[in-house]
Amino acid sequence: MSFRTTAETAYVEDVSPGSGALPPRAWYASSDATSLSLNGRWRFRLSRTADAEDDSFAAEGYDAGDWAEVSVPGHWVLQGNGVLGSPIYTNHLYPFPVDPPRVPTENPTGDHLRIFDLPADWPDLAEGGAVLRFDGVESCARVWLNGTEIGEFKGSRLPHEFAVGSLLKTVDNVLAVRVHQWSAGSYLEDQDQWWLPGIFRDVTLLHRPAGAAADFFVHASYDHLSGTGTLRVDSDVPGRVTVPDLGIALATGESATVPVQPWSAEVPRLYAGELATEGERVPLRIGFRTVELSDGLIKVNGRRVLFKGVNRHEWHPERGRALDLDTMREDVLLMKRHNINAVRTSHYPPHPAFLDLCDEYGLWVIDECDLETHGFTEQGWRDNPVDDDRWTPALLDRASRMVERDKNHPSVVIWSLGNEAGTGRGLTAMAEWIHDRDTSRLVHYEGDIDCRDTDMYSRMYASHAEVERIGRHLDGGTRRRRELPFVLCEYAHAMGNGPGGLADYQRLFEAHERLQGAFVWEWIDHGIAHPELGYAYGGDFGEELHDGNFVCDGLLFPDRQPSPGLVEFKKVIEPVGIGGTPGDGTVRITNKQDFAGLSALSFSWSYEVEGEPVESGTLTVPELAPGESAEVKLPAPPAAAPTGEAHWTLRAVLAAETPWAPKGHIVAWGQVLASPRRVPSLAPTARPVSDAGVITLGPGTFDARTGALTAIGAVPVTAPRLDVWRATTDNDDGAAWQTDTRYGLLWRQLGLHRMRHRLDAVEAGEHALTVRTRVAPAAAEVGLSTVYRWTSDGDSLRLTVCTTPEGDWTVPLPRLGIRFGLSAADEVRWFGGGPGEAYADSRMASTVGRWQSTVDGMQTPYVRPQENGARIDVRWAELGGLRIEGDPEFLLTARRWTTEQLDAAAHRTDLTPDGTVWVNLDHGQHGIGSQSCGPGPLPQYHLRAEPAEFSFVFSPAD
Ligand code: IPT
Description:
Blueprint: E1 18-19, E2 35-37, E3 40-49, E4 68-72, E5 88-90, E6 106-116, E7 129-134, E8 137-138, E9 140-145, E10 148-154, E11 160-163, E12 173-180, E13 193-195, E14 198-199, E15 203-208, E16 216-223, E17 228-235, E18 239-243, E19 248-251, E20 255-259, E21 271-277, E22 281-286, E23 291-294, E24 297-300, E25 303-304, E26 307-311, H1 325-337, E27 342-344, H2 352-361, E28 364-368, H3 392-406, E29 412-416, H4 425-437, E30 442-444, E31 457-460, H5 464-471, H6 479-482, E32 486-491, H7 502-511, E33 515-520, E34 528-530, E35 534-536, H8 564-572, E36 576-579, E37 586-591, E38 601-609, E39 612-619, E40 629-633, E41 646-654, E42 666-675, E43 689-691, E44 694-697, E45 700-703, E46 709-712, E47 715-723, H9 730-733, H10 743-750, E48 755-764, E49 769-777, E50 783-792, E51 797-806, E52 815-822, E53 827-834, E54 847-854, E55 871-879, E56 882-895, H11 899-904, E57 917-925, E58 948-956
Parallel strand pairs: 26-27, 26-33, 27-28, 28-29, 29-30, 31-32, 32-33
Antiparallel strand pairs: 1-10, 2-15, 3-4, 3-6, 5-13, 6-12, 7-11, 7-15, 8-14, 9-10, 9-12, 16-17, 17-20, 18-19, 18-21, 21-22, 23-24, 24-25, 34-35, 36-37, 37-40, 38-39, 38-41, 41-42, 43-44, 44-45, 45-46, 46-47, 47-52, 48-49, 49-50, 50-51, 51-58, 52-57, 53-54, 53-55, 55-56, 56-57, 56-58
């Protein structure tokens, strides 16, 4: 038996973009033309192959009464509880044999049926035409209306329109859409995400009155020297353009120059206007801005801009890429509230409404085409469609569908050809077409290392050192490239705990003007809500090939709760710098924005002793132009302040409500030490007393044979002992292709997760109990000679830990500290860094203060469990009836399971309380870095195996 493509289904494997669709044009919502949304419940039938069923279902009168139903927009694999197939996650591997343009015979095919009547207000069918618009269908669709085939198309995240006026009826219209999961188009859509077939964006029927606007291009530039804007609207159908606020009234094709306020991401001034053609009025939202390459820099309105960006995939944990407006708005609000000013729409044009929000709230956008052929890297890019002329029409079709749809958005400042598609003639053709069609924006593509086709040098995951070389123009490369500005289109891989190293990158971007910023990979974890697993990731649906939790690498958890990475990012990219030198009575305020002054902000100070506010007031900050700084005098410390460690906490908050956050929203902050900490002292006066196998020392009770602490006062404890292991993070484990040292693997090879504790001596001395041990893994010569020295003043108990590495340590330690167990603990209070987790290279957002949480509240819900939740710089903490003071400050972690259980868990639902609260007090932890896709922690954040001494004072809490 042989399988073959029948003539009926040949279009599926045809490299062409399709047939029957109208030419691409601007996407807009008419003021007066009627439209009908065809979103809602559709009849649905799934077949295993493209040709299993004939097209009789498209005929009028077909009875689909026994079919299933799905929601449109939607992906059928997310709607049938597994009955309608399931999602597949691969990063770059094609989940089918690579034999372009052929696709597997097993090609899940969803027949969709929708019967509809025209609404009562639909104009007479004889007047004007009608257009049927699909905003997104993955990956290939064939469409019939009332039994007549109207076309087929590919290009999943791009709009396709069909003229259907002559086919419409008043009632009982039958819209039939056959969607194939795999098509030739799939080869162009190998983005790192779930493969999710379906009609996942809106389906709309648009009335097109006679004389309606068709396509139009709003050109609105800004001359920063004269302060004027020039408007010209080119329209296929002539008409009049009015902008009442500017007194503009002119014909299409004509231009007017008037004084305007420019549009920027910081101050997104939009002017309401209208295009009126004979048959239709179209609302315009005009933002005047000029994007140019000048002096080797990307300039907007004459100024260098710095992108503080994220890569945004469209994601919802239940609905996949079928996003509603509220979810899109939530993304934009969360971005604005976290100081983000730019988005790369990785790796396809988003739902068009998202760009309206970017215009309105203010975000710079790199609009990226729906193109990735990453899987060809497996064969050295041989047969890559972007270097094969047969595919060029499909590439040009994609480029034009993006540009034509989105060209009227002021927020879009850069077009991107796509992602990870190698290089080739097809990409060059796309770049040429785009440059020619739209001279008012720049072109981006990362894979073009020589920048032949692009207007900027772009890279992903380059190390700090390399980025610095690029910033200093020491990176070599072609002459063309050397003259171009630089962006990191992806960096700081936000998978699991992390990213670390953000602040070190930001310093470089602020120091070198060629470095125009960067886009964190990525915005949100693509976890799929799952009844047993919490959130599913690759492999959880039994996929043959998959890339595990590499799909959960965002700054937001799947439910859109900000992860610590986002909180860190907000701090690192804050638009106002606030810092000072301890003790000099001033604070330095820097306006780090590109356009705006400080008038939207108000500043305050708070004087805090031991984290408790003593007095607060407003700080008068002079108006500062972008880039300017001033030293601002702090008030005298409050006379009545109690003694103790004190800080000035300075905040910049919104002076008034904005469209994206309420008045008082904290935009930026800083702390200045006012009076240093005094470390706990304890006079060792108590003596160890030995009796019946038990040693007591002050409030401490010990096993006399092992020297193990068993209780502090009335609080039973599982004895503290040295701990060097952490449940490796995704960044510790690193990506398989990483050539740099992947410490997570080396640690495990060395056996740091199975350290043995050898007891050498228990010595009860005059004023101390000393326990000598050696902590080491089987099969290795390395070890840590570790001495626990206990002293007491009768009320409190001090533990001093002294460790000395032995042997040849060639790796840093994951952590260095002690772990002990409490039989009960819930509330946790501490003075130190908070409120959230922080590590050596992800600690900018940690504020010194008095914090309170619970053991459960201290867990960070990474989709794949791993080390999390450490609070840094803790001076003292109270939990489980104990007060613990550190000398020096320590990292605090408390959880209801052991590190070993955390390490073994694949999903959060694998974690169950084991009856003990396990507390880690760390002298240090290894940095976090970004090695799940980028560089590891910088050397200064490595936790070297070195002699160390640290201590804790334990007392029963009052
Ligand atoms: C880079 C991709 O562009 C992006 O889609 C995503 O896969 C990211 O990596 C990792 O999460 S490609 C890089 C691995 C070379």
